[in-house]
Amino acid sequence: MSARAQSADRRINSVTQATASGELYLSISNLWKAFGEFLALKDISLDIHEGEFICFLGPSGCGKTTLLRAIAGLDLQTKGSVMQDGKDVSNLPPSERDFGIVFQSYALFPNLTIEKNIAFGLENTGRDKSEIAVRVHELLELVGLPDQGTKYPAQLSGGQQQRIALARAIATNPGLLLLDEPLSALDAKVRVHLRHEIKELQRKLGVTTVMVTHDQEEALTMADKIVVMNQGVIEQVGSPTEIYREPANLFVADFIGEMNQLPATARGKAGISIGADSDIVKSQTHHFSDGETIVAAIRPEDVIPHGNGTSASDETDVIGDPENVFTVKLAEMEFLGSFWRCRLQNEYFGASELIADFSINAVRRFELEEGKDMVVELPQDRLMAFPRVEAN
């Protein structure tokens, strides 16, 4: 094994140990960024630990790319600080910061071979040619393209070019890897395959990684933690499971995955009434005052089917709370391969429809058909309440 490879192994072991102990690697404190009168970032504070894979997720214009560029020093913050590995890098130029970066557009040099593209950053580090050649070969092996070194970027597919861009970014063993929507220019199948490869590579190297994406699926499948952003602020930070199952507010709930939103009224601290004059149903514990208008929210996959019937009282297969059982009309069914997306109507919902995702087996078992009545349960632990003012 080369000295360079041994160094990389030592780094991986060090990062693994640091991650286990929760060592802080990147700390962003009270960071603001203004472009003239427009505030792109508003008082951002965030801690990232060594070895973590973090995704900045949000709609276009939310500030996620601006935050990534501030970390890299490509757009200096208006105020606030960035600490990396115990060092204040807030005002350092990009050349003096320890990171590698991969852009959406690959940014490979079209007139250089793949080997020379990867070697470009290594040539300014004082290494001799033989050491650089060994390192380039190691990296080509690492990204699964050992025989492509003599080709030019135009001779490779988009997915292959992005792997080369990744190899170039990690060539100098940076402490931080920044990915600016690296998969958005690729087709769906290549994107799914490459996101798995990037995650496996990140785990192997143990490098702290920050990725910007607007793709919810990418964030949910790749990240250790997701930072959900909107209009220049952080709405929530958490694991993919926490973000999806326990959204902090209605924006997060609505942005990540599908979410039903129904007009409701607070009844006690763990109850609501949905729509007009409906009975009280049990919900997650909330902080709203009795009688306050709110939004009831539940994900389509959390709606439980209990079968065909004319009324909830006729249903004998009810599991859970009878208070949370509704008779609905199955207004529309849409086949989506592994499940059916169903639109359910009920007099209490008013103009709103309840969207439910039922498995193929459930549709077959209960003989569900458009136009028929059926019984569904809205389980208490999945029925959330949010302020009405946050509704879309």
UniProtKB/TrEMBL annotation:
Source species, domain of life: Bacteria
Family per similarity comment: Belongs to the ABC transporter superfamily.
Keyword list, A-Z: ATP-binding, Cell inner membrane, Cell membrane, Membrane, Nucleotide-binding, Translocase, Transport
Domain called ABC transporter: residue spans: 26-256
NCBIfam families: PhnT2
InterPro entries, per the entry: AAA+_ATPase (IPR003593), ABC_SmlMolc_Importer (IPR050093), ABC_transporter-like_ATP-bd (IPR003439), ABC_transporter-like_CS (IPR017871), AminoethylPonate_ABC_PhnT2 (IPR017666), Mo/tungstate-bd_C_term_dom (IPR008995), P-loop_NTPase (IPR027417)
Source organism phylogeny: Bacteria, Pseudomonadati, Pseudomonadota, Alphaproteobacteria, Rhodobacterales
GO CC terms: ATP-binding cassette (ABC) transporter complex
Organism encoding this protein: Parasedimentitalea huanghaiensis
Protein name, as recorded: Putative 2-aminoethylphosphonate ABC transporter ATP-binding protein
PANTHER family in the record: PUTRESCINE TRANSPORT ATP-BINDING PROTEIN POTG (PTHR42781:SF5), SPERMIDINE/PUTRESCINE IMPORT ATP-BINDING PROTEIN POTA (PTHR42781)
GO molecular function, one term: ATP binding
Pfam annotation, one family: ABC_tran
